[in-house]
Specification:
Number of strands of chain A: 9
CATH topology of the largest domain in chain A: Immunoglobulin-like
CATH class of the largest domain in chain A: Mainly Beta
Oligomer: heterodimer
Order of helices and strands of chain B: EEEEEEE
Largest interface: A-B, 34 and 33 residues
CATH topology of chain B: Immunoglobulin-like
Number of domains of chain B: 1
Strand order of the largest sheet of chain B: 4-3-6-7
Number of domains of chain A: 2
Number of strands of chain B: 7
CATH class of chain B: Mainly Beta
Mean pLDDT of chain A: 83
CATH architecture of chain B: Sandwich
Chain lengths: 155, 110
């Protein structure tokens, strides 16, 4: 190896080392940033484009006025038998105007005995809360309720 | 480090065939990844409970996918049909892979 070749190789190696951390850092931050989703996108994620019917079988209990948006108690009951082959497969709770509208998806089995879930969610501002029930035959039922929020709970 | 978790069965006395309510809570801040630290101004990285799985005996009874918009210290309550005396295990999995487990005994009387 003569002097000219050696200098070429050494130069390339040092520049590669200097550049690589910048490249790596750039990709890492791009992945970590959360994405804002719209309600329609979130709904499509759950149903896969199938129609969702309004139904009084789904009962959504939430306060009409929530003083603190960080803790809003939500209860969902579905009036449907829980037997083998005919049961409520899942209950989804969504908040329409949140950064990520999906809050919780509970997958149930006949061993639950009754389709019921109770939890506490965050609401960024005044919006509609939606409960979607997925039945074992593939149909979707929903119930909506507007909740007024005095102090937002996200960030 | 495992986090503090609690499981409660209501009502306290039950027999085979009853439908009981199971209430569970885990102490967790549920950082959404959007809030800023008030002192340093930096964004707090997302840290939340991603999945809850419930096992009754060997059977997986219920599982839930959680998203960051669930409140801090996530409280979940659901129903269970008592069919036998068996342990009830709940497993909480976080988005960074941390796992918390808690087991209680289901003991129907009469």
């Amino acid at each position: 190896m003569n002097r000219r070749n050696f200098l070429k190789v050494a130069g390339l190696a040092t520049s590669a080392v200097a550049v690589s951390p910048i490249l790596l850092k750039g990709t890492a931050t791009a992945e970590a940033k959360p994405q804002k989703k719209s309600y329609e996108e979130a709904l499509k994620e759950i149903t896969g484009g199938k129609p969702v019917k309004d139904s009084d079988k789904v009962k959504l209990i939430a306060p009409a006025i929530a003083e603190n948006g960080a803790v809003v108690p939500v209860k969902v009951t579905v009036n449907h038998p829980m037997e083998e082959g005919n049961y409520v497969k899942a209950i989804h709770i969504l908040a329409k105007k949140n950064f990520d509208p999906r809050s919780i998806s509970a997958h149930l089995t006949p061993a639950n005995g009754r389709a019921f879930i109770s939890t506490r969610i965050r609401l960024a501002k005044t919006m509609d809360v939606v409960a979607i029930a997925e039945l074992s035959d593939g149909t979707f039922l929903k119930a909506e309720k507007p909740v007024k929020v005095t102090i937002g709970g996200c960030g | 480090m495992a986090r503090t978790a609690l499981i409660k069965v209501k009502p306290r006395r039950y027999k085979v065939g009853d439908i009981v309510t199971i209430a569970s809570i885990i102490m967790h801040p549920m950082h959404t990844g959007l809030q800023k630290d008030k002192k340093t101004g930096k964004i707090i990285p997302a840290q939340y409970v991603k999945k809850i799985e419930v096992f009754y005996g060997d059977e997986k009874v219920t599982w839930m996918d959680l998203f960051p918009s669930v409140s801090a210290n996530p409280f979940i309550s659901f129903n269970l049909k008592v069919t036998k005396a068996a342990p009830l295990k709940i497993v909480w999995t976080e988005n960074d892979g941390k796992v918390t487990e808690k087991t209680i005994q289901i003991k129907p009387k009469g």
